[in-house]
Amino acid sequence: MRKLTLSEWANIAEILGSAVVVLSLIFIGLELRQNTNALYTNSWQQVIDKMIDLDLSEASDETLGRVMIEGETNLGALSKEEQWRFYRVAQARLGQLEFAYLAKINGTLDEFHWGAMEGYLRHMLCMPGYVDFWEDMGSTVYHPQLYAYVEGDILNSCSKEK
Asked: Which end of the chain is more exposed for a tag (fewer CB within 10 A), N or C?
């Protein structure tokens, strides 16, 4: 068996180095996929946790529950103080949906989970009290992309349902 020359060893080392680079890139790709999945899960969990907190607050406070039920259908029937309470909860609830929408746009919330949130958004914004809230606050409080989406897609679907 003959001895390898220095240039042959260099070629072998270059091939091995290239193989290590390819394996490293595969590993990095797998890690990125795992991190992306963790981002999806984290975004979804944040939205759900906040929405549960709001729902529990509303359900455990009889007065707030009544304000929300009345405000959703007839905001004008509420006192100024009650309207303020309705607006605070509506703003928080829509803020969570805004977070979900922006997470979907940024790729950290998948289409399946956004579909659930979108249905909830459509349901809410088709209620008269939320329509009033949106007309008063939508353009000043929420991200321009969400505002355009709601104005162009969500509210149009409400008028078609009636």
From this structure: N
